[in-house]
Task: structure prediction
Amino acid sequence: MNSQNQRRIRLEEEFETNAANPPKKWIRGVNLGGWLLAEQFITPYLFAVNSCHVQGDLCWYPGQIGAPEDNDNWCDPEKCRPVQKFVQEDGNADYHPKGAEPYLGYPMDEMTLGQTFDRKDIAHEYMERHWDTFLNKQHLIDLKEAGVTHLRVPMGFWVRGNVQDGEPFIGGSWPYFARMVDWCREIGLEVWADLHGAPGSQNGFDNSGYLLEPHTCMGWSDRAENVARTVEILRDIVVNGIVGEGMTDVVTGVGLLNEPMLDCDQDVLRQYYNDGLEIVRNAMGKDTSVFVGDMFQSWRFNDGFWDDEPNTFLDTHQYHVFFEMGRAFTPRQHIAYLCRHNSEEVVACCYEDAPNNTIPTVNGIQKIVGEWTGAYDQLPTAVAPYVMEVIGETGVAPRLNRTLSRARMRFLENFVKAQMVVYEAKEDTVSHGWFFWNFHMEGGAYAEWDFLRGVKEGWMPKLPPPTVASEDLFGSCLDIYNRTNNDYSTTIDEYPDPSDLDWTKNQGWDATDDFVLDDPSAPERLYGPIEPNHRNVSPWLFIVAVVATGLWFSYRRRSMRRQDYESLK
Result:
């Protein structure tokens, strides 16, 4: 028996002897993302709509999640041609490549996915196959056995069929949510339903159903009719759906709105939160958990907001992969950033004596980290165009069978353990737990986002019992930092290559902290963007180096694509 299992048993015995004064029960959950609200990077094949699909021939791609083992209807790339009719920019607020040009591509979100089909009946059949096969009962059993206690289930406003004339969204997935609730009742998992997409979009992200540029909340908070419609949609989900169909023994939490953007009108948003809380309390009672998005700035809500509302949570999301400096971190810098910065963000709210922040709320709102992942060096918004391009050219997703090196998996184990420790914030008591994103992914391009793959490969640890803090089992964040191997070459594989980025544009925020940056293994660009005046060399040598790097990277991409295709033909 290893030392960690011995420690687990000892902590369980200590809890039994202190049953008269039971400790906090941690929420340790996983998101069922990409299921009832589809996202391209989670299920790229779903968005690779071809001419056979739109005509009603629902063929499968090789390696597509849900494809039957005895399937004999594979998509023939010669016959089933890509349906690519949407103008896209090769980049967004998180990724600014050089010389980006608009191009015609596959659908990017659920809105354009619905627009791809001329016939609504075929579109519904296409999506129904996805709802039926992307999640199955065995997935939930495996999550339970791994120690997961809760499931966060993102859904769009159209989940129960609230689709107006002219809207392309494909409703009708609610029966599959109900089936999942029945499975969870049998298995012993709690469900938190989350309204992930509102009419008009609260953020302009693809995960709201609309991918907008720029990302904004104005289509929601600046339009009273969309806010009022969202209130009624939430009422229908809670009153007619969850309560009306007898789900309250399993559905113990409701999310009112996911990731409202920074430019949301705060007065409108808070009034909506109050209206939503009233709906949930009146229909489901005071013991139901209610969670709300923090606008990416949880300190804004550290002003007495809901400080007398028990079983409420401010939902914050933490990712290292969405800023270039973070993707370039050494292994230890990733852990250091968790210990120093992410830990501060988690405890930025909520306190009874704000702004002194010494007395955490007890009978009011607390923190929950509703999304985080194992990904750290490969940006999904940069990988996705490449994945979709290769599917269109070959009919097979690249990196379908991608494997992770042992060194990478060893770091992943430390990275996810450190995040569990930090997001629980044991000593500060303001956080109640977390939800990992995501339960599984299609193919290997995004392996680090795949919880069930992590369990299978061993880099996702067995979770402690709900009454035991992760820190008590895995050690402190600093302990994990000290035992992390700092070999950059075997652990970091940054994508996109920094030489492909347009450094005159924003590439994300900076980490200006000595504890994080004081690492002799760190690449030089952590201390400034890649520009000639940051190097003590001739400008001509710099130009030659950039050209050579670009040619090498272009060759590398072509080589990788050819190898992926040849290995999967």
Q: What stands out?
A: The longest helix spans residues 539-568. Confidence is low (pLDDT under 50) at residues 527-569. The chain has 20 helices and ten strands. Strands lie at 27-31, 86-88, 103-105, 150-156, 190-197, 251-255, 289-293, 312-317, 366-371, 431-436.
